[in-house]
Amino acid sequence: MGESLIDLGLGLQIHSKVGLLMKLLSRIPFLLVACLVACTPKESDNDSVVEWPKYRGPGEQGVSKARNVPTEWSTEKNIIWKAEIPGRGWSSPILLDGKIVLTTGIEEPMDEMHDLKVLQVDAETGEILWIKTVLQATLAEGADRNEKNSLASPTVAIDEGVIYAHFAHMGTVALDFDTGETLWKYKVSFTAKNGAGGTPIVLDDLLVFTADSLEEPAIVALYKKTGKVAWKTVRSHQVKNNFSHGTPLVIENNGRTEIISPGSGMVGAYSPEDGKELWLVRYPMGFSMSTRPIFVDGILYMGTGFSRPSFYAIRVDGATGDLTDTHVKWMFHKSMPKTPSPNFVNGNIITLEDAGRMQSLDAETGEKRWMEPLRGMFSASPVQVGEDLLYVVSEDGLFYVLRISDEGCEIISQIEMDEETLATPAIVDGLIYLRTRHHLWKIGNEG
Q1: Enclosing H/E stretch for 415
Q2: pLDDT in tens, 197-211
Q3: Please, which residues have CB within 8 angstroms of residue 284's CB and are 6 or more apart in sequence?
Q4: DSSP state of 421
Q5: What is the pLDDT of residues 4-33, one digit of tens each?
Q6: Given its phi and psi angles, is residue 62 left (phi above 0), alpha (psi -120 to 50 degrees) or beta?
Q7: Rounded-to-integer distance, Cα 328 and Cα 344, Å
Q8: pLDDT above 80 for 92
Q9: What is the pTM of this model?
């Protein structure tokens, strides 16, 4: 009896397990499909553009892949919100994790000092979440600038929960992204001549910026965790007017990471490890540099700054040393920008002169394809949206939406914002964030 009961029990267990196994096998196709659906990224999510995390956009070259961006609005129509921003500053909005970060300066001194501030704005509502006085500038430091410039013109860099706000000769500060708490400060005094301009960049464990002073032009790297100096490289080629305000650009040159940094009379490539100059190209004219280069298909495209700007296309192919006589692919000298940075649109190099002459140069040859005069003076850099649209705003607040082709430039819209601006807009899916003299605007297709 005992053996029979044992056999019966085992038989029931085996039968039960076989039945369960058959049920599971029958569901494998469904489970596989469910897994594939759950594990495959949604194309719409991958393609969405909801952040503007760096100066000149995610790729740092003035390009937005945003969709459904407004092309028609006014100061009353399609405005989702309009937030008043205290002080004055021309740093461009940076959008990350649903928050916008700006800097501003208080031009009315208190106790003979100017307050320099960083603030964070809720991108959904326009509410200022926090605003912190992070540094103070003396009257002499505040006066060391062009009257058009503000005390807070460099755009912030953000990395791993830390905001890096740079005020050039007035100091640099790291803040906690969530709270605005100061983590460290760094300052080296020098004569900026035209004030603060160049934006810092983050590369691995470094915060890199230019310190192109009148006395000793240099590029500086700080350890981003501590604010201590990692290296400082004085420019190997100097000119009469050494001061400049360039923003570095990181590129890959035949497997070698380089920091490209334009300055007065030269553009140099520097090693991130120790700041060693790897190559340079000299130009006879050029100072107070503020335009940022773009890098496309092994070619660096850049303007040379004041006072008679030229435009250079430089081959980047792994060579080192002085490449002035060997690697300049072409130059163009007429009606080039002193301040706005260039764009690359479908084989066209698009430049915007400060006085409003927009030109298209063939990227391969440098031959001029067309020129279109725009009304106004310009400091903000254009942003390309999609395949062929450019969004650009004049200093008087006239916002253009343009369609670019090989044949010319079609004006799609002209919108008067009725406020001065020198800041480049941030453009994401369905939205434009624009900073003007007194406000930050959120522009959408409905509002």
Answers
A1: strand 409-416
A2: 899 999 999 999 999
A3: 265
A4: -
A5: 333 333 343 434 443 443 443 444 443 333
A6: left
A7: 18
A8: yes
A9: 0.88
